[in-house]
Structure formats: C-alpha cells, structure tokens
Amino acid sequence: MLSIEVLQQIVANSELGQEWINDPLMSQDVWAFTDLGYSEEDCTINNKRNLYFNDISLSWLKLLIKLTIKASAREKHCLGTLKERVIYLKQFNNFLNEKGYTKPELLTDALLQEFIHKGNQKARRKVIAHAVKLWSEEQWLKLTFTCPKYKSNTPKIETIPEEVLAQIYQNFDLFPPPPIPLPIYEGELMHKLPFLRN
Fold first, then answer.
1. pLDDT band at 183 (very low <50, low <70, confident <90, very high)
2. What pTM value is reported for the model?
3. Among candidates 21, 25, 23, which has minimal Cα distance to 11?
4. CA–centroid distance for 95 within its chain
5. Tens digits of per-residue pLDDT, 139-179?
6. What pLDDT is attached to residue 1?
7. Which range of residues forms the domain containing residue 180?
C-alpha cells in the first residue's frame, strides 16, 4: 500500500521532488500564480490569479497534482494550461471517490479510460496523459495507461457526374484563356520589360 508518507519519501528522493517537497507552498491550498514565477501582467492579461487545491480529498493525489503544477510552471506553460490541469485532475479525484478507488495501487488502465470517456474526452485525455507521463518519468507513481487515439473521419470523395463533365467539355471554348506565364529567368524578364532595367 502506498501511503502519503511513502509517497512523500519517494518524491523527496526524485530529481524534481527533492527541491519542491519542502517548499512552503506545498502545504498551502491556494497558490497565487505570482508565487509560481508568473508576472502580475500575465495574471491581468489572462484574468487568472490563483489555483485552488482545497477540495481535493485524496491526499496522495493532491500531492501529485501540486507537483504536476510545479513542473508545468517550471516549463512555463500558460496559465490556462495550469488551470485546466487542476480542474481535470480535481474531476479525477471526484471520479475516484465516487467509484471507491482511494488508493493509487488500485488505478488501472480501464479506470483511467472510463474517466476519460465520461466527460470532455480530448481535454481529459490530454491532462491524464501528461500527468501519468510526468509521474512515471519522475518515478512518483507508475500507472499503466494506453492513451487512446481518435481517428478523424476520412472526407467523402465527391465525383462530378458525367453529364456535368460533358457540358463543361462542350462549352470549354467559353472559358477565358489561361493567363500567360511570367518569364522564369531574370534575363528574359529584363529583355521583355526594358523599363525595369533602371
């Protein structure tokens, strides 16, 4: 079983975690973007000031979400991306509570896929894929996750009916002549347009 204490020790031994685990910000549930290195101007332009972690009930997930945000801020992701990650990871917290999965070792690929398919699939998939990859790279939590790939519909190929083509070919002489191509070589251009020489 992965307790919060064990997770904190794992984080403290990781490359990024060792500099963040004792940061006073980690014990707070309201973070100002300016505390993450963003300017007051960034906050004003984006109309965003704070991130809120107070309604995340799973302590191990709250720690991982905060670490994810610290990593995102370090990479200078935009404020909207940080806010989006908090929102969807909070939704993930609520989903896990509703399903009764309160321990990280109970998380499966099927459970992650179910979460993704219950809401804004594209946004949820993006956030979960980013978080799972970061957590795995930093060795905070290894989860099995296969990022679903969505196929876009192949456009339908439209054909021109033969009757229409026949009418076009019959009236081809009514179309205006094609434009005269411009000379390719500079020498030819200068020869045909002597007024450009000066």
1. low
2. 0.71
3. 21
4. 21
5. 898 888 887 665 556 666 678 788 888 888 888 788 787 77
6. 59
7. 162-196
Domain identity same for 38 and 87? yes
CB 61, CB 96: distance < 8 Å: yes
Do residue 96 and residue 186 come from a single domain? Answer: no
- 190: pLDDT strictly greater than 60: no
Q: Residue type at 110?
A: A
- Which pLDDT value is given to residue 94? 95
Amino acid of residue 5: E
Position 94, amino acid: N
Number of domains in the chain: 2
**Residues 90-99: contacts with CB under 8 Å, at least 24 apart:** 90/55, 90/56, 90/65, 91/115, 91/119, 91/124, 92/61, 92/124, 92/128, 93/56, 93/57, 93/58, 93/61, 93/62, 93/65, 96/58, 96/61, 97/57, 97/58
Residues 104, 25 share a domain: yes
